[in-house]
Amino acid sequence: MPSIYFTLSAAALAGFASVAQAQTNITTNACADGSNYSSCNRNVANNWSSCVNDCNGDGNCMVDCGCTAHQEYINCMAQSCWNQVYSCEYQLFVQQYFSVCPSAVEPIPFWPAPDNAPNRCSCDLGKVLQNTLTARKEQVTCMSNVTDQTVSEASNGSIANLGNGLDIAKQATDCACCGASASYSAAWEVCPNTVPTLAGADLWPVFFPDDMPNMYTSIPNWAWDTCDSTLDNVQCQDIGFNDSSDKFYKPGDFPRNGTSTLSNVAGTVTAPPSGTVITWSQASSTWTVTATGYDAKAVASQSDYRATATGTGAQYPEQTSVDNVNGAGNVRPVGGAVAALGFVGALMAL
């Protein structure tokens, strides 16, 4: 049976053909070294196309090709478009990478953007996605605990203590509702002024679609919109969920939706945020990327404030950031399971 990741990747590949002539949101002239950026993207697109052709229709092979291509696009950004890595466009691209690549793990360069970063997205998309990924892990653990407890009681002959089918289903329902709530709630908590779907409220079905095989087999007819009563009667923190904002909204009790679209906050990234050379890894691959198109004086001025690959817990130079929207225009949203499809399709056309 093909994995959900292959299903998403196949859809993405089909979509790329239709948007191949679209204009990328990160244009070449916005990058620190536009010429190298364009050349790098073109090479990645060609390699991706060759890789897919060599797969001869094998789904797992095509997924691997997509993972590699996304990783290499990140390298292109780190090399020659590092001045745009805090933007909505790049943050959406990382969101897509996690959506289509099953081996994607943190840390990712320049993601999520730090709170004080210039030219950052008006909504912290990285933090929203991190909450979703954490909720996924916690839900899997919660479900496993229910299964392990049931198996343990059965194997120990503790028939008297073995929960009946309804009890097991209730525990599994608690896990499912808390996981979904932790993910959905993040969009409203992290980006209360942003249109929820643009903030990432629709990420949960990407990672846990309701028809995913074997995910909710112990929960008859489970659906998110039935979770109100469950969340009234369970403390999600008590069953292993650790939402940073301690918010687990019920389907019928969410705050008012935000109305703002995505845009980039004013400011300029004047030197490679993680230094002129970065090293990062995914799965069994490690890359060392050297930045181009930077001014040596600008790099020297922030040499004491190097960013980590995750952008978490590190100091960042105060460059030219101001906390207002610069009117540069809204990021063109792309809906559905692959949020930044148009962006990558445009990259392939370069």
Q: What is the radius of gyration?
A: 22 Å
Order of helices and strands: HHHHHHHHHEEEHEH
Q: What fraction of the residues are assigned to beta strands by DSSP?
A: 5-15%
Task: Indicate the percent of residues in helices.
Answer: 40-55%
Strand order of the largest sheet: 1-4
Which stretches of 5+ consecutive residues score pLDDT under 50?
Answer: 1-24, 303-350
Summed up, the domain count is 2
Can you give the mean pLDDT?
A: 77
Q: Quick one: overall form?
A: globular
Biggest pleated sheet: 2 strands, antiparallel
Output the structural class.
mainly alpha
Distance between the termini: 35 Å
Keywords: Signal
Signal peptide: 1-22
Protein name: Extracellular membrane protein CFEM domain-containing protein
Organism: Penicillium cinerascens
Descriptive account of the structure:
The chain has helices at residues 4-18, 34-54, 59-80, 88-100, 125-155, 165-190, 196-199, 204-207, 228-232, 296-301, 341-349; strands spanning 263-265, 277-282, 285-290, 325-330. The chain contains eleven helices and four strands, in the order αααααααααβββαβα. The protein has 350 residues and is mainly alpha-helical. It has two domains: 4-122 and 264-349, no CATH class; 131-239, no CATH class. The strands form two sheets. It has a two-stranded antiparallel ribbon. A two-stranded antiparallel sheet has the order 2-3.
